[in-house]
Amino acid sequence: MESMRELFKIGFGPSSSHTMGPQRAAQKILEMYPDATHFHVDLHGSLALTGKGHLTDYIIEKTFAPKPVDFSFKSDELPLHPNGMIVHVYNHDQKIKDIEVYSIGGGSILFKGELAEKPVHVYQQNTMTDILKYVDEHGMSLYDYVLENEGEDFEYFLSSILSAMFESVENGLKKEGIIQGKLQLKRVAKSMFQQAQNTRREADRERLFISSYAYAVAEENADGGKIVTAPTCGASGIMPAILYYCYKQLHIEKKDLIKALAIGGLFGNVVKTNATISGADGGCQAEVGTACAMGAATMAWIYELNNSLIEYAAEMGLEHNLGLTCDPVGGYVQIPCIERNGYGSLRALDAAMLAKQLGYLRKNKVSFDTIVKVMKETGKDLSSAYKETSLGGLAKEFGLS
Ligand code: SF4
Predict the structure, then answer these.
(1) What is the CA(329)–ligand 1 centre distance, in A?
(2) Are 85 and 55 in contact, with CB atoms under 8 Å apart?
(3) Is 288 in the pocket of ligand 1 (CB under 6 A)?
(4) What is the DSSP letter of 50?
(5) Distance between alpha carbon 58 and the CA centroid of its chain, in Å?
(6) Cα–Cα dist 84/80, whole Å
(7) Whole-angstrom Cα distance, residue 193 to residue 57?
(8) For residues 145 and 142, what is the distance between their CA atoms, to the nearest angstrom?
(9) How far lies 360's CA from each of 305, 309, 319, 364, in Å?
(10) Strands of 82-190, DSSP E
(11) Phi, psi (degrees; rounded to nearest 5) at 174
(12) C-alpha span between 99 and 114 (Å, rounded)
């Protein structure tokens, strides 16, 4: 399993696979071919179908600037992943290279052929079953397991990720107005937060606080603001909402939140390794479903549940998002994405609470690894109309192009 540094990335929205990934690919190509004078980019599959709304062409053009670039949008998919592109590199009249590259989710990229880079595996274990067996045999906590594999300086990395997450919540809570794009969607996080402050019923107040934090980040992301992929841009609101809620409402110290963040990340990493975190590959179950599992594990750690109950919480968080479709209206990461982050953060909280209560009554029969496998298979069975192409579901109903 790769480092969690490849999972949590600080960057700009609205989409890790459609903006962050293509931006990283363009940067690498620029480094490899400094003599290039101009480019032509063929965007394929989901990158072509929702690339405009997700700002794919905009970010590539910005990265290559001042070198000119033009685009072809081709709805057919390249063989390795639905988010593929071919970059034709030119030096004046001469074409010097055709580069096939994929944006495989969460801002990660994959070059095909001789440019392919081997992933660096820092963890020996790849499944949650093996991880839980290892920590059990060695009498260590899940957090110590993460540090053993990532190295001691990892705490510094986690601290910077936590700060960036909190910053994205606070930035989103300050802003009002309309989010960029054709939907003309109004920001509501700030008003939700004020409603929470004025709500007397404690149960409602707590849920409104959490939702407002998730909306704040998701609105920032939709508007091209700075966020942390957790595991993706589209699902970036859930982990910060849980952590900020723990900080502000439950008064948990940052040193403990850093540990909780690592536990959530561990579960996200297992999904990324064994299935997918890409909406174009697996639908929204891969993005918000994974984020919900991560949030549930994070909250379960805060509740000081044992490892088996943390696993139960995460499993529940993913299980009940199985089949969740990705159908962003107009290709914008706004409807259903923003609301889905609010909803997902509440579900994460519920999953941890249920694991806490039910886990002592009977043993959960479904392992986290099983549900990850099921999610992967379900993603394969989902029609491509529901995998970030904006050809089905809400996107089709709204008919916005
Ligand atoms: S519907 Fe889900 S997977 Fe699709 S763009 Fe929105 S958040 Fe991402």
Answers:
(1) 10
(2) no
(3) yes
(4) S
(5) 21
(6) 8
(7) 35
(8) 5
(9) 10, 9, 19, 10
(10) 83-91, 94-105, 108-111
(11) -85, -25
(12) 10
Contact 335 CB / ligand 1 (< 6 Å): no
SS3 178: strand
Domains of the chain: 13-115 (3.30.1330.90), 128-187+214-398 (no CATH)
Q: Which H helix or E strand runs over 217?
A: helix 202-222
Tokens of 68: 């000119």
- 134 CA → ligand 1 middle, Å: 34
375 CB less than 6 Å from ligand 1? Answer: no
- Is residue 283 a contact partner of residue 386, using CB atoms and an 8 Å limit? yes
pLDDT for the residue 186? 98
Q: What integer pLDDT is reported at residue 394 of this predicted model?
A: 95
Torsion of CA 258, 263, 266, 268, to 10 degrees: -90
Give every CB contact of residue 368 below 8 A, 6+ residues apart in sequence: 128, 129, 267, 270, 293, 311, 314, 315, 318
Q: What is the mean pLDDT of each run of 10 residues along the chain (401 residues)?
A: 96 92 95 97 95 90 96 95 96 96 93 83 97 98 98 95 98 98 97 97 96 98 96 98 98 98 98 97 98 98 97 98 97 96 98 93 94 98 95 90 54
Contact 222, 213 (CB under 8 A): no
Pocket test for ligand 1, best of 54, 239, 284, 347 (most atoms within 8 A of CB): 284
Can you give the C-alpha Rg of the chain in angstroms? Answer: 21
| CA distance linking residue 123 with residue 270, whole number of Å | 11
Say whether 365 sits in a helix, a strand or coil. coil
In whole angstroms, what is the distance from residue 257 CA to residue 249 CA? 13
Beta strands 38-45 and 10-12 are unpaired
**pLDDT at position 32:** 95
Q: Give the CB-side neighbour count of residue 231, counting CA atoms within 13 A.
A: 33
Q: How far is the CA of 279 from the centre of ligand 1 (A)?
A: 6
90/97 Cα distance (integer angstroms): 7
Contact assessment for residue 132 and residue 144, using Cβ atoms and an 8 Å cutoff:
no
